């Protein structure tokens, strides 16, 4: 049946694309592949219990013993798997920042890291074969461990300068988005001696507070609370709390490229080395990293690719401009609580976020997406490459044209029938002009190709 796993596991609308039949069968495939004890957890979505039950049934039918560690952030599950030597792998039931009708099934290997594409293909092949169920005396068992949440939070606290944070008597506004951060966010702030004003900290999988993608538009409440409470920092997570975005003490939303730059600078002030980020990240990161004496390495888009490059090149830090940060001294995956704790440390040592923001270089970045049928994605990139074959370019992921004052990136989405265009420059007009030009070319190509197919 071809590709089942997208960039972030198997995702779909519950009981339409992501059915319990699919979940049971995938559970059998995962259990057959891992052959051992498998950890399972979910975020706060309404369908979490149902999908987790179905995947669990499949896992046990294939002979896997499972440990259900409850409702918690994806990185807490990854930490549990990685810190227990005898785990074969882990499964997270989450659709991250997607709307509440979605859910997903995401696997990690014995180290807690996301699986390589080749490994997912092996699981997909097993899914296609549909492994049967074991005989009654060879099915797996289920046990429960409620300790994962606190173990993760304690581990984060051990990896920051907790004493300095405690001594600073900070106040933070924390927005859990009714998602998995409810389990770890308030506990983390309490253990770090930070006074917490919480928002949407009750787990409600329909996300009544606001949509679970932490964009500026969705975070109006925390932004206005920051202005009235005079707190030191605002912290907001996405639905499964692997990502973290920040609001300054002055109530300004800190874009992901800015928090990544500020954190890179802070990490490099302690330890020089390499920072890894995807080709879609703002050049702001590179400028700040170079000024701090570090180097940047670019990868294709997607946190597993960033994590792998960090591992292979012994990087000191890495992340994406959507609030995903990876701290290799803790674990090689996006780590929402670690990002929050490290930013508190950074504020204590380097000063208010509002001041740190002022020191950042200015770039104008335009991001657009256009509808593009999946079968036209590769031909479109090839067409744009041919058209720009004499230009200075990087083809790590799609086509990135490099200019003196900026760059333009055209790439296909890994998960949706969408083509993305990014254009960045220190000159706002140039950024806009390049985005317009490439967008027109792309739309024309898609139209002509679609018409050709109809004829
Ligand atoms: Mg997420």
**What is the averaged pLDDT score?**
95
In CATH, the topology of the largest domain is named Alpha-D-Glucose-1,6-Bisphosphate, Chain A, domain 3
Could you tell me the strand content as a percent range? 15-25%
Helix content: 40-55%
Instruction: Identify the CATH homologous superfamily of the largest domain.
Output: Alpha-D-Glucose-1,6-Bisphosphate, subunit A, domain 3
- In terms of structural class, how would the helical and strand content be classed? alpha/beta
**Looking at the structure, what is the overall shape?**
globular
- Model regions low in confidence, pLDDT < 50 over at least 5 residues: none
Number of strands: 20
The rounded distance between the terminal residues' Cα atoms is 28 Å
Tally of separate helices: 15
Radius of gyration, in angstroms, nearest whole number: 22 Å
Counting structural domains, the number is 3
Q: Can you tell me the CATH architecture of the largest domain?
A: 3-Layer(aba) Sandwich
Short description:
This protein has 15 helices and 20 strands. It is of the alpha/beta class. It is globular.
List the helices and strands and how they pair.
Blueprint: E1 10-13, H1 20-34, E2 37-42, H2 48-61, E3 65-71, H3 74-83, E4 89-93, E5 102-108, H4 117-129, E6 142-144, H5 148-158, H6 162-167, E7 171-175, H7 181-191, E8 195-199, H8 220-229, E9 233-237, E10 244-247, E11 253-254, H9 256-270, E12 274-278, H10 283-291, E13 295-299, H11 303-313, E14 317-319, E15 325-326, H12 336-350, H13 353-358, E16 364-371, H14 374-387, E17 393-394, E18 399-403, E19 406-412, E20 418-425, H15 428-454
Parallel strand pairs: 2-3, 2-4, 3-6, 7-8, 7-9, 12-13, 12-14
Antiparallel strand pairs: 1-5, 4-5, 9-10, 10-11, 14-15, 16-20, 17-18, 18-19, 19-20
Bound molecules: magnesium ion.
Magnesium ion binds at residues 96-97, 238, 240, 242-243.
């Amino acid at each position: 049946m071809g590709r089942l796993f997208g960039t972030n596991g198997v995702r779909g609308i519950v009981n339409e694309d992501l059915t319990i039949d699919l979940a049971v069968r995938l559970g059998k495939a995962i259990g057959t592949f891992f052959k051992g004890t498998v950890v399972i957890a979910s975020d706060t979505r309404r369908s979490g219990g149902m999908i987790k039950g179905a995947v669990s049934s499949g896992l046990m039918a294939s002979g896997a013993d499972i440990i259900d560690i409850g409702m918690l952030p994806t990185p807490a599950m990854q930490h549990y798997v990685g810190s227990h030597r005898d785990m074969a792998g882990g499964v997270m039931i989450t659709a991250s920042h997607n709307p509440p009708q979605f859910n997903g099934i995401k696997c990690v290997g014995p180290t807690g890291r996301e699986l390589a594409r080749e490994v997912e293909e092996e699981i997909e092949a097993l899914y296609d074969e549909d492994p049967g169920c074991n005989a009654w005396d060879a099915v797996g068992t289920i046990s429960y461990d409620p300790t994962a949440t606190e173990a993760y939070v304690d581990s984060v606290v051990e990896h920051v300068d907790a004493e300095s944070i405690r001594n600073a008597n900070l106040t933070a506004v924390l927005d859990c988005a009714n998602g998995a951060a409810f389990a770890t966010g308030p506990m983390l702030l309490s253990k770090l001696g930070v006074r917490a004003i919480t928002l949407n900290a009750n787990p409600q999988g329909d996300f009544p507070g606001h949509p679970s993608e932490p964009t500026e538009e969705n975070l109006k409440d925390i932004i206005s609370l920051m202005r009235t409470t005079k707190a030191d920092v605002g912290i907001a997570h996405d639905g499964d709390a692997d990502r973290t975005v920040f609001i300054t003490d002055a109530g300004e939303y800190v874009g992901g490229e800015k928090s990544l730059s500020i954190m890179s600078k802070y990490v490099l002030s302690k330890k020089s080395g390499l920072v890894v980020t995807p080709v879609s990240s703002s050049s702001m990161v590179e400028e700040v990293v170079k000024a701090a004496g570090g180097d940047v390495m670019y990868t294709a888009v997607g946190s597993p690719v960033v994590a792998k490059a960090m591992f292979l090149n012994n990087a000191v830090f890495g992340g994406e401009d959507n609030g995903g940060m990876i701290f290799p001294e803790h674990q090689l995956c996006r780590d929402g609580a670690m990002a929050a704790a490290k930013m508190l440390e950074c504020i204590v040592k380097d000063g208010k976020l509002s001041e740190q923001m002022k020191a950042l270089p200015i770039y104008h970045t335009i991001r657009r997406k256009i509808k593009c049928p999946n079968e036209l994605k590769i031909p479109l990139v090839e067409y744009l490459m041919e058209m720009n074959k004499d230009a200075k370019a990087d083809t790590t992921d799609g086509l990135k044209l490099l200019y003196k004052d900026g760059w333009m990136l055209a790439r296909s989405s890994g998960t949706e029938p969408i083509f993305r265009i990014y254009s960045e420059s220190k000159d706002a007009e140039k950024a806009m002009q390049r985005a317009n030009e490439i967008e027109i070319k792309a739309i024309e190509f898609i139209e002509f190709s679609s018409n050709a197919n109809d004829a």
